[in-house]
Each structure stands twice: as C-alpha cells, then as structure tokens.
Amino acid sequence: MSGHGAVPPPPPSPPPAQRGTSRGPVPDESPVVRGFLDEPVTVQELPARAGDARGFFRRGRDVVFGTERRIGVWTLPLFLIMGLLGATLSGGLALLYYGQQVRDLERTTSRARAQLDEVAEDLGRTAEEARTQIQDEARSVKEAVSRKPPIDSPNEAGIFAVAARHAGGEVRVGSGFAIFSDSNETYMVTSYSTVESDDGFAVRTADVYLPGGTVTATVHNYDRDLDIATLRLRGGPVPVPEWRPGDQGLTRGDAVYVAGIAGPSTPTIVSGTIAGFSSATIVPDIALNAFLAGAPLLDASGKVMGIATLSYHPFGPVDGDLEYAVPIRLICKRLVRCTRSDLQAGQLGDEGGSGAVRRPPPTQEPAEPTPSPTPSPPPTAPPTTEPTPG
C-alpha cells in the first residue's frame, strides 16, 4: 500500500471450472465482504482496507488541525472570530472616544450658549436702562420747558410779605403764609430770622402786607431750632394754603416751588426739584434769599410741603448753595396744635387730641419776649371745632 492510500488492484479471477468432469474444480471458500463503495472485499483484503480507512481519517485530521508543515483549516474560523472580536473592541473604543468628544463638544457649546445668553441679557438691560434714562431726561426737559407754577399769585394763595423793625432802625423783610384764619383772627408762620431780636429772643410785632393794606401782627411764638415763628393777626379771613397729605411720599426729582415776596410789591415763584429728603428736612435745589425766608415750599399741585428758611441746619452748619426746608408737620411739635387731618397717618402723633384745630395754642402775651424757645402749655384749651378756612 502506498503512502497515499491507493486502492490495490483486484486479485485475479479464479480459473473457470472445467466442464466434462463429474465433480468440477473445488470452489474458493473465502467469505466476501461489501466495502465502502458496495464493492466486494475479501477477508484477506480487510486489513489493507482498514489501513486505508485509518489513513483517510489521519489525512482528514491533518487537513482540519494541520501538521508541522501546514496550518489546519480550523485556524480560519479562529482568525475570523479574533478579527471580529478585534473589530468589535476597536469599534467600542472608537465609540467611547468619539462619544466623549461629542459630550465635550456639547458641554463647550452649552457654555458658549450660556455666555451668549448672558451677553444678550446684559445688552438688553443696558438698552432698557439707556431707554429709561433717555425717557426720563426727555420728560424732565419737557417738564422744565412746559412747567407752570401751581398758583398764579402768592397773595391769592395766602402768602404775604412780612417786615420786622429792629433796634437802630433795621428792617428785615421775609415771607409768611396763613395756617389758620377766620373772621376774628389769623395765624401765620414766617422765618424766625426775620423777627429775631439782637438779644437772641424776638421782637414783639411785625407788619404783614395784605392786599388791602398793612396789618400789625403780634409775634405769638417761635422756635430757634426750626427757624420758625408764628404771628397772630386780628381780623380775617384770608386764604389758607392746603397742606400736602402726610402719607403721600416724596421722590427725588419731584418738582417743587417756593412762593413768596422777593421785595416790595414783587410776588415771586421759583421752581426746582427735590434733591434730598428725610423726616427732619427737605432739600430743594432752589436758590433762596432773605425775602423768601418763611415762604411755603409747594408741590406740583400747590400744597404746602415745608417752609423755606436760611437758618435751619438740622445736621449742623454747612457751606454751600443748598438750603434746608422745614417739613411742614414739624411745626406741630411745639408751635401749632394740629388736627387729625393734618397729621396724616399719625406721623408726629396727635398732640391736639380729637377735634383739635390747626392753630397755635393761645398763650398770655408777655410784656417782654419769652427767653425760652419752647413755650409753656397754654392756660386755656383751644376751640373744639375747626373753623372753615376762608
């Protein structure tokens, strides 16, 4: 048998039996076996055929699993599997890498978008602020151009000139306005600097220039700290300016006016705005002179907010052009007994009690000026009803 497992040639056929004899030739008694391809195989041929089968399987094994000189076919699926695993791993790593890159790009884009949104918001706010500022300035210019005083005539609003004669013939002139008036008497407020005497108290009388003539008034009371004095006139009635409601707040930039008499027969109304305010003072950006000391500080509707003075310094003396105005309700503390309607929201307390009238409490007029800026309590109670102002 060759090494390649070739099938051997079949054995020679037995000679045919001889005819004419009675018994004939002796037949071959070897058994016959069917082989792979249904060909007869004798017993003598079985070992050779078995060796051929073992060679066949060995050759099949060598083909599948390989030999020392050649690779078996089983390595092909292995290489395929390893290639697939390598491709899967490489794809996974690439997916992770590019996924991370995508996430980083998304975060960068998100931050950039947030920054752009902030810039857009800042631009929007800046534009809105600029628009508001332009509108405010335009409104201020329009108001300044078209602003009309809330009153036509100081005298018609109950605002008059006040003159006080001092030792040596000196005459000080200021302004004042009525806070109460009926047919019998009238009370006014003016600047204490106008009636202050050389000894630090007050003169006894002052002249009030009413439209019908000059009337002599008595200096009824005063407060050095507030730079306010009250005058009492016999007769009336005269117009009484209305007070601004106490619960109506102030705003910087609000229009204000000082209405007074800037000289003989010279009614004057000057305008400005509120530069600052507190419970102790109002600061208008209005230049004042001595003629306007004691004049009312009016709001845009003509209601009294305070009293213009040149000597009221609630925080101590200061240099500069701005002056402090006395909030109107501060006179309710010591000089004027105010009504509940005057003390809106109870800002200073209702010192006058229910039904009190807006007028200075009557006092005994001393022969000499009282040395104390704080008057003693009145000996008699004021009227319990408030007369109707003229």
Identify the CATH architecture of the largest domain: Beta Barrel
Distance between the termini: 155 Å
Bin the helical content.
10-25%
What pattern of helices and strands is seen along the backbone? EEHHEEEHEEEEEEEEE
Give the structural class.
alpha+beta
- DSSP strand count: 14
Average pLDDT level = 76
Rg from Cα: 62 Å
Strand content: 15-25%
What is the global morphology?
rod-shaped
The main β sheet shows up as: 6 strands, antiparallel, barrel
Strands of the widest sheet, in order across it, are: 3-4-5-8-7-6
Q: How is this structure best described in words?
A:
The structure is a single chain. The protein is an alpha+beta fold and 390 residues long. It folds into two domains: 47-146; 155-346, Thrombin, subunit H (Beta Barrel), CATH 2.40.10.120. The protein contains three helices and 14 strands. It has helices at residues 46-65, 75-146, 192-195, and strands at residues 32-34, 40-42, 159-165, 171-181, 185-191, 205-210, 213-223, 228-234, 255-261, 267-277, 282-284, 296-298, 304-308, 325-327.
